[in-house]
Write a structure and sequence with these properties.
Layout lengths: L2 H18 L4 H17 L1 H12 L3 H25 L3 E2 L6 E8 L2 E5 L7 H12 L3 E5 L5 H12 L8 E3 L7 H6 L3 E7 L2 H13 L3 E5 L4 E5 L5 H13 L9 E7 L3 H12 L20 H16 L3 E4 L14 E4 L6 H4 L6 E7 L2 H9 L6 E5 L3 H10 L5 E4 L18 E2 L4 H4 L4 E8 L1
Parallel strand pairs: 3-4, 3-6, 4-5, 6-7, 8-9, 8-13, 9-12, 11-12, 13-14
Antiparallel strand pairs: 1-2, 2-16, 7-15, 10-11
Length: about 425
């Protein structure tokens, strides 16, 4: 798209918003209910498209399409109550806060969950009464166009949801356009700094969900086999390309050896195979540059003193494959400790005790997700609540997004929330009304 086409698309979206914002929650919900059914009816088609474009194992692609139906249904069912007027105390006859849509929202979305990332942002944003412009990653343009076609088939006002097929040089034009009133980005820390600065210069609300180096702390009293299984399952999801997955396994010294043995045994069960095979659990990485960057991080980490327990080599077979890899003896001076690893690599870090484990967990510029493993649930709950500097924390489980729960990070992992009661309130005008 050239600049003139972009401007026309923004103007069309804004015109569609003027009618959409006047529709009742029930009328908007009818559109999203139809959209949810499309994701279920065409799940095989959409799953195949995801897998072909970015290499996700087909079983996970199917689950992603189904999850899109869930998020559409959830906000169709609950948006009205989540955005109900809130009575407020005052000296006047009546005072209340109301939540009003603000207009066109510009969404810059990543390739790793090419359907889910879009719908988890679009469903609450649009059920709140806004229009939605999508700039998707170039390597999943097919997914972007498929999503747009679904909206067009479900009774939404024409042009309310549009895909912008543009290069990055036109993105500032979209952000600065007076009809665009909010910006949401899921992507890298570097992209977040650029987009956040552009949005700030334009005095527009932004939500940034950026990278993570999520710490999973395993305490001495944890069920080690279960903890290892959950850590590895989280780490290997989506071929290791998940911002919110377990990145750093931090383990107390006394249980380090046994835990490591469990991790090695579990990682050995993952073999690289065609992602269109229903039994595949590890497919190729999404692009050559991403595979090569990940390998460079492994090489630099070993050079800095990490021990390579398995993997760590680029296969000679065609495609952007990378084997299950484990790095041990990782310290804060190691690239694998500080940088986000986007690939099938587990990082095991030894802690002297619980206090040291928590210090290592929080020794990161990121703060997206994390977990604590312990048989003492009350202690785990307190550690998750008070000690883990992250936006989402699990106890004896791994973090995953859920339409009912707010999702987002702190620190260099970004700001703002998606999903849940707080996500739907990000792109609204919280207006105070006083009646004397």
């Amino acid at each position: 798209m050239d600049a003139a086409t972009v401007d026309t698309t923004i103007e069309s979206a804004s015109s569609a918003w003027l009618s959409w914002r006047k529709m009742s929650f029930a009328e908007r919900a009818d559109c999203f209910k139809r959209l949810a059914q499309i994701f279920r009816d065409r799940e095989q088609e959409f799953a195949s498209l995801m897998t072909r474009e970015m290499g996700k194992p087909i079983s996970q692609s199917l689950a992603e399409s189904q999850k899109c139906g869930w998020v559409c249904d959830y906000f169709a069912d609950h948006a009205e109550e989540l955005l109900a007027d809130v009575p407020l105390p005052s000296d006047d006859r009546e005072a209340f806060a109301t939540f009003q849509p603000i207009g066109v929202i510009y969404a810059i979305m990543p390739w790793n969950f090419p359907f889910w990332q879009v719908l988890r942002s679009a469903a609450p944003t649009m059920m709140a009464g806004n229009a939605f412009l999508l700039k998707h990653s170039p390597n999943v343009t097919g997914c972007a166009m498929a999503i747009e076609s679904c909206f067009a088939a479900c009774g939404f006002p024409e042009h309310l949801f549009r895909t912008l097929i543009i290069d990055l040089d036109l993105s500032p034009r979209v952000i600065e356009h007076p009809l665009v009133r909010g910006i949401t980005l899921t992507g890298s820390e570097r992209a977040g700094r650029i987009v956040g600065a552009q949005a700030g210069a334009a005095i527009k609300k932004s939500v940034l969900e950026l990278g993570g180096s999520d710490p999973y702390v395993v305490l001495e009293d944890a069920d080690l086999k279960e903890a290892a299984d959950l850590c590895v399952s989280s780490r290997m999801l989506n071929n290791g390309q998940v911002c919110i997955s377990a990145k750093r396994f931090i383990v107390s010294d006394s249980i380090h050896q046994e835990f490591t043995e469990h991790v090695v045994s579990l990682m050995q069960e993952y073999d690289m195979r065609n992602p269109e095979d229903e039994t595949c659990r590890l497919g190729p990485l999404a692009r050559e540059d991403l595979r090569d960057h990940h390998h460079d991080q492994i090489v630099r980490s070993v050079e800095a003193g990490a021990t390579l327990l398995m993997g760590g080599t680029k296969p000679s077979k065609d495609g952007w494959w990378y084997p299950p890899t484990i790095l041990a003896d990782v310290t804060p001076e190691t690239p694998a400790f500080e940088e986000e690893l986007f690939g099938p690599t587990a990082v095991i870090i030894k802690a002297t005790d619980e206090a040291d484990a928590l210090m290592l967990a929080n020794d990161s510029r990121y703060g997206l997700g994390g977990a604590v493993f312990t048989r003492n649930l009350e202690h785990g709950r307190n550690l998750a609540r008070e000690q883990m500097n992250v936006g989402c924390c699990a106890v004896n489980g791994f973090v995953k997004s859920d339409p009912r729960l707010p999702f987002g990070g702190t620190g260099d992992s970004g700001y703002g929330r998606e999903l849940g009661p707080f996500g739907i309130q990000e792109f609204v005008n919280i207006k105070t009304v006083v009646v004397s």
